[in-house]
Amino acid sequence: MDLSTIITSVLTLLAGIGVFLVACQIMSSNLEAASSEKLKKLFSKASDNKLIGVGIGALGTAAIQSSGATTVMTIGFVNAGIISLSQAATIIYGANIGTTVTAQIVAMGMFGGNSISTGVIFSAFAGIGAFLGLFSKKSGFRTIGGILAGFGLLFVGLELMSGSMEAFSGLEGVKSFLAGISSPLLLVLLGALLTALIQSSSVMTSIALAMVVTGLIGIDQGIFLTMGSNIGSCVVALIAGIPGSTNAKRTAMIHLLFNCSGVLIFMLAAMVMDPFGLSYGHLFGRLFPGVPQVQLAMFHTAFNVITVLLMLPLTGALVSIVTKMVPDKKKALNEEFSLKYVDVNMLRTPPVAVLQVKREILRMAYVALVNMDRSLDMATRLDFGEKGNFERDERGLNFINRELIAFVVQLSGAPSLGHRDRAYLSGTYRNIRDIERIGDYAENIVEYATALSKGGEQFSDDAKYEISQLKELLHRLYRWAMEAYIDEDLSALEKANAIEEEIDDYTRRMEEGHISRMEEGICTPSVGAQYLELSSNAERIADHMINVAKSIRSLK
Predict the structure, then answer these.
(1) What CA–CA distances, in Å, run from 130 to 109, 136, 146?
(2) C-alpha angle with apex 268: 99 to 202, nearest 5 degrees?
(3) 233: part of which helix (H) or strand (E)?
């Protein structure tokens, strides 16, 4: 056995794995950027329909070429309370189907005898994509160049891996050693371990494909290695679920139990077929004769599709099992507040994370509106029964302000974000700050109400009526401002602008009317001062609302 050949082959294999992993990352990030809007719409359609969940998982994974990213993102959705465990389970099922696309693409690249192989042809896309990315001035063409470069590099890595396998196949000692590993259980465990180390089932499946094509291992050995890779792929989800909520941990366990169940079912089926001289290699060899790479790729697809079909009706039972395995825990005092729609795991899929940031901002805006209502009600009724809830939500607004900005800072550095998403995020910092300031001004109004109560004074009936009319105007402004922000609707922005101007005029009339009442002796100077401050703060609340709506102009 030539030691230098072995060392060279091992180093070539490591180089191939490295190129393949980098290629997956390049292609995945650029595919995300190219399909960001469609990806957002896709994951926003999650429902209780199991088939829709499977479809979302399959299409999402096929689009971004990463089942790990889809699974981690799903854990993020569950952690944020956006989707239920049952919905998450079906999306994970679909992700397992979507990940088989990579194996099919790799198998296509292994064709070619004496003619130019498809792998060499596909590898050339790396150069085409690189030139397109380097010399194109348009971001869209650069993204396409990145996709092509990543696609081509997949096959460059595959060629390196295949080359190392061919070198190994010439070493009788290596072939004899691998031939001796015939135990299905041992092969499954080996596939799971290697995938857990590499953290990519696509790489493990591609290595198995290369080993089968070069004759290093038989098709059945490749099949059991591939089955093990499905278990090993759960490591990424488990790592993502550990720091998350109870439901995030449960989602990771669903992924593990689902894949283990599929492997167990197929292992038992293999044991039943064995006495009859049948095996998966025999069956797929008959279906696709002479093309071992297609045999293994098609088994990989069949394995995941059949597992999904078998497990889909058992989703409720699976959720019940993981709920018992990971029981609910008592909420700690420091967990009073949390981001509802945003989770750090979503950074794996930036385009979808951008959509969730918008949802979190809308949630923040609604909390600010509720606190504004409470403050105006306290000022007019001098009833402080809601003060505890007001103070709690004010702390919540401050928490969201701090944590959401920190998340947006991390998200803004993602390379896969498109130009539109970057433009949106650049205005997000001010939007968050504007909404937080609404809460601050509401807090000022509560202080004015407290001062009135302590002084044994209150606003006149006319003043109370004017505040109620102002509150109605602010609600109308909120409605159109949020509609403009959500739908990026300029016509809604025009309506919001008109109402904001109306509020400016109304607060001026409020001040003039209150000065007249003070001159007539209806109101005392101290009450008048509190009223003027209230109207001024309400006018500033309107300014911050309209600022959020105006931010859509940068997206047009």
Answers:
(1) 20, 10, 7
(2) 20
(3) none
